[in-house]
Amino acid sequence: MSLSRQDEPDACGLGKERESKSQSLVTVPIERERKHYNIHHKTRGKAIIFAYSEYSKSELPRRDFAPHDVQICTKAFKRLGYEVTVHWNFRKRHFLNILDEVRKADHSESDSLVIIFMSHGGVEKLSNNEYLWTSDAPVYTTELWRNFTPENCPTLVGKPKMFFIQACRGTGSDKGVKLKNDFGLKVETDAVSTTKKKEDLALPICPDMLMMWASYPGTYAFNSYHGVINGSVFLHYLVEVLDKWAEREDLFSMLLRLTREVAIHYEAYCPSEYQMHKSKQIPYLFSTLTKNMHFFEKKSNLE
């Protein structure tokens, strides 16, 4: 492993104007006494991975580590029982078509839906809105989930829809604050400056959705080639936590572990880039889930 290769952010700087759409009110049936999502459907559900490693825009750097990220995510979600499908370097039109196809599919016999998106991302300078890159054009992050609202995807009503996004959310860096742990060793944890300009987040208002970004709004999401990590920091720890704890803990407990692991154990190695060198990263979670989610192993129909 070469120590000369620096950690990299999934960032770039191009956006477009946003289309504003209103959301209508949908009545959702709720089992008031149930504290856990039903995981006893016939299948766990679909896990859709959108992976980008190259782009038609010359200013967008290749993401050579993407195959590794796809490999570990595919194995992890297959172990959880998901039907995993990977889409490589799709153009915007094809990307939107796939989301529409997933929306129209019958999810009646599925527990849930997972969508993983890994690419470059950023924030528009004028509108201050976040976007993600397909191979030929940017899309707003809202495109990931707007197809799966109760009105657009009725067979997923009352079921968890989970979105994991590996992409930068701006060009800010976080140097952390110095603390001491119980052993007297200096460590770093999160301390985001309150003077930074805030991004306008367009988040869904419907229930049963969970979005987790690799980083806090306005900051880099790093990829590392050092130590045990050989790709995206966020996805590395996501897979590690799922592999170790999925049979014992609920989703929120695992994502708390994930956040702690990234915040405490990762520090960017970019000695030639002062702004990014030794920066910290912390994932960002938004959830409207109304119950606990578990990934316990499904029992055979013969049992």
TrEMBL record:
Coiled coil: none annotated. InterPro entries: Caspase-like_dom_sf (IPR029030), Caspase_cys_AS (IPR033139), Caspase_his_AS (IPR016129), Pept_C14 (IPR002398), Pept_C14_caspase (IPR011600), Pept_C14_p10 (IPR002138), Pept_C14_p20 (IPR001309), Pept_C14A (IPR015917). This is Caspase. The keyword Hydrolase applies. Residues 43-172 form the Caspase family p20 domain. Belongs to the peptidase C14A family. One of its GO terms (biological process) is positive regulation of neuron apoptotic process. Residues 1-24 are annotated as: Disordered. Pfam families: Peptidase_C14. GO terms for cellular component: cytoplasm. Keywords: Hydrolase, Protease, Thiol protease, Zymogen. GO terms for molecular function: cysteine-type endopeptidase activity. Residues 203-297 form the Caspase family p10 domain.
